[in-house]
Automatic annotation (TrEMBL):
Cofactor: [2Fe-2S] cluster
GO biological process: pyrimidine nucleotide biosynthetic process
Protein name as catalogued: Dihydroorotate dehydrogenase electron transfer subunit
Entry keyword set: 2Fe-2S, Electron transport, FAD, Flavoprotein, Iron, Iron-sulfur, Metal-binding, Transport
Gene3D superfamilies: Dihydroorotate dehydrogenase, electron transfer subunit, Nucleotide-binding domain of ferredoxin-NADP reductase (FNR) module, Translation factors
Domain Oxidoreductase FAD/NAD(P)-binding: 120-212
Residues bound to [2Fe-2S] cluster: 233, 238, 241, 258
Record flagged with keyword Electron transport: yes
Family of the protein in this entry: Belongs to the PyrK family.
Matching Pfam families: DHODB_Fe-S_bind (PF10418), NAD_binding_1 (PF00175)
Residue intervals of the Dihydroorotate dehydrogenase electron transfer subunit iron-sulphur cluster binding domain: 228-269
Length: 282
């Protein structure tokens, strides 16, 4: 098992901007020198609710992208869906508010040393970390294609930005209100073959990550996925985000998504055991 990201630090960060984008909030935070240690796939744990809050535990949010060339100094972008009490509180914080954050946390996506053909697959606002990843891959000379999917069109995050960020973008919605009707996995094998895909990077619902893993199981395509297990503490203490992962000897270990992930090799996750306790651990 790994330990907490050695680059992680706690600091007070100021919200530079907070604006509604479709069904989500795009929140830009001034974090200064911290951006130099952030990598695509890392996440941030934020203390939510204010000084009098009963929400003791921090909330984990994927880092969409960072920038150290902005006129505002080092900035971190988050894409937040106002679903739970913590995320709702964060989404109403105005410009200038201060946040208590710990970052960067977790493992990051593996970046190839040579140009490759990469396919990025995102579901809902889970696609947010893939935009920063696309920037890094394109700077390495990779050909980057992207598939975005959601139940309805308003849950597709920033489709126009997606078009600008990658070589090609294809959108799927289950109700057909945007792009093609269906799921992002509909034509996955055909796309892999036609575009000679070497690696898939994915982030989104666990069902989507499992489906991608199963589809590429008999191919040579590597699948790096950022798992979406709920993280109560984000630093490896509470054990609420454990996932069954197969070891080299065939045994299964329960690894913490916040410390050993969130980025994992999809072929190592025991998807059929997710949510269950393997027999050896009962």
């Amino acid at each position: 098992m790994n330990t907490i990201n050695k680059s992680a630090v706690q600091q007070i960060a100021t919200i530079h901007s907070n604006k509604r984008v479709g069904a989500y909030h795009q929140i830009l935070i001034n974090v200064g020198e911290m951006v130099k240690s952030c990598r695509p796939g890392n996440f941030v744990a934020i203390s939510v609710g204010g000084d009098s809050s009963r929400m003791i535990l921090r909330r984990a949010f994927a880092i969409s992208r960072v920038s150290d060339s902005s006129q505002y100094g080092g900035t971190m972008e988050l894409i937040v869906a106002p679903h739970g009490s913590g995320s709702k509180w964060l989404c109403v914080q105005p410009e200038g508010s201060e946040l208590d954050i710990v970052a960067p946390l977790g493992t990051s996506f593996g970046i190839p040393t040579e140009p490759i053909n990469a396919l990025l697959v995102g579901g809902g606002y889970g696609s947010a970390p893939l935009f920063g990843l696309a920037d890094v891959l394109k700077n390495r000379g990779c050909k980057v294609d992207m598939l975005l999917g959601a139940s309805i069109g308003t849950k597709i995050y920033a489709p126009m930005e997606g078009k600008r960020s990658v070589n090609s973008l294809k959108i799927y919605t289950e109700d057909g209100s945007m792009g093609e009707k269906g799921r992002v996995t509909e034509s996955l094998l055909e796309i892999i073959s036609n575009r000679s895909i070497d690696v898939i990077y994915s982030c989104g619902p666990m069902g989507m990550l499992r489906a991608i893993t199963e589809l590429v199981a008999n191919t040579e395509v590597i699948h790096q996925c950022a798992v979406e297990e709920s993280m109560a503490c984000g630093i490896g203490i509470c054990m609420t985000c454990v996932l069954p992962v197969r070891n080299e000897d065939g045994s299964t270990s329960m690894l913490r998504s916040c410390i050993d992930g969130p980025v994992m090799d999809g072929s190592h996750v025991q998807w059929d055991l997710v949510g269950r306790i393997p027999e050896a651990h009962q």
